[in-house]
Amino acid sequence: MSVPDRESPIFRDWVRFVYGEGHLPPRPVEAEALLAAHPWLADVDPFAAGRLPLTGAPATGRPPLAAVTQSSLGRLRPDDFEACVRTLLDQGADPNTAWLHPSGSRLSALYGAAGITHNARITRLLLEAGANPNDGESLYHSLEAPDTEVLKLLLAHGALPRGNELRKALDYPAVEPVRLLLAAGADANYAMPWAIRRRRPHETFLLLLEHGAIATPALAQEALRRGLTQTANHLRELCAAPEPTPIDRFLTACATADEAAARAEFPGVIPPEHLRLLPDQVEAGNLAAARLMVELGWPIDAPGGDWNASALNLAVFRGNPELTRFLLSHGADWRAIHGFGADVRGTLAYASVAKPVPGGDWEACARVLADAGVPLK
């Protein structure tokens, strides 16, 4: 096709769906539907489409091998994209090919296979061809895969966890990735506070302790305040921590949704340094605790969580219409701005595309917000 086709709005939309744009993730299903409706897109950029023969240069500006492996369509047609990768490697493509993202990040072809499409066969092809597993992205994003196959391949080929990977693994409930990273030398001490914040099961903490994490009174206190009573008690025994303070007992009661104990220990005024625990509990999925904290009079718009967001923003992010309705009925302000500079409408716009929490219902959240008078258009 002619060069002007690259300027077509259809082509621009397709590229946005294939690779994502800004903070918005790719949308491979929509991209494949657009490709089916407009087959000429594959002629303009066969690399992004995963179609042989591969001719010319990718219209997106990515190097050919990176254009193929970073295309989200590889999730839908893995065999087609594996054939493209084999062809490019046979033609002499450098397995360490990378694309320089406008942000300055260097995104390798391996990152596409390991971190975007999570394709173990293509990951193996690239590693066996000499791709560097320590590219700063592949290991970290492999942890977003639904299994550990790609993670195991990267570690077997010399990937070295630097610290952030273990924290990333602790964002998810599965224990096996944590075990694999610790066995590869990840720093258990670095991850302990994050595991507490994410309210991971006691098994995870035993694993961290087994791999050298040190119990401290501060960790025991924070575990108690987050409602991890079994872990807190274990840590307290290991480091001879002092007895819990009254505020510790109050926060533990809140975090365990023990209403009677929380009311009995209520300090009258919640110390400012603990206000973020409400959004933190929503972020961690401890929704019973969040409800109780609101009913106790916790400042409902207090910011917290990873991105300095209100409980309402985090409820919508999780796609939880019931909690969204509850928070609005208790006075949550939809105009509260989070750390990315938007209100709850921006949160909804992002989460409804990214679908960051399995089982979330963002359409229902939109209806709840609209029913509450939030202008969504």
Quick summary:
This protein is an all-alpha fold and 377 residues long. It has helices at residues 9-19, 28-37, 40-44, 46-49, 64-69, 78-90, 109-116, 120-128, 138-142, 149-156, 164-169, 176-183, 188-197, 202-210, 217-225, 229-239, 246-255, 259-265, 277-283, 287-295, 311-317, 321-329, 344-354, 362-371; strands spanning 98-100, 106-108. The protein is flat and about 70 Å long.
The proportion of strand residues reads: under 5%
Spatial order of strands in the largest sheet: 1-2
Per the principal axes of the C-alpha atoms, what is the gross shape?
flat
Q: Say which CATH homologous superfamily of the domain at 1-160 is assigned.
A: Ankyrin repeat-containing domain
Q: Would you identify the CATH architecture of the domain at 1-160?
A: Alpha Horseshoe
| N- and C-termini, Cα separation | 37 Å
Derived from helix and strand composition plus strand pairing, the structural class reads mainly alpha
CATH class of the domain at 1-160: Mainly Alpha
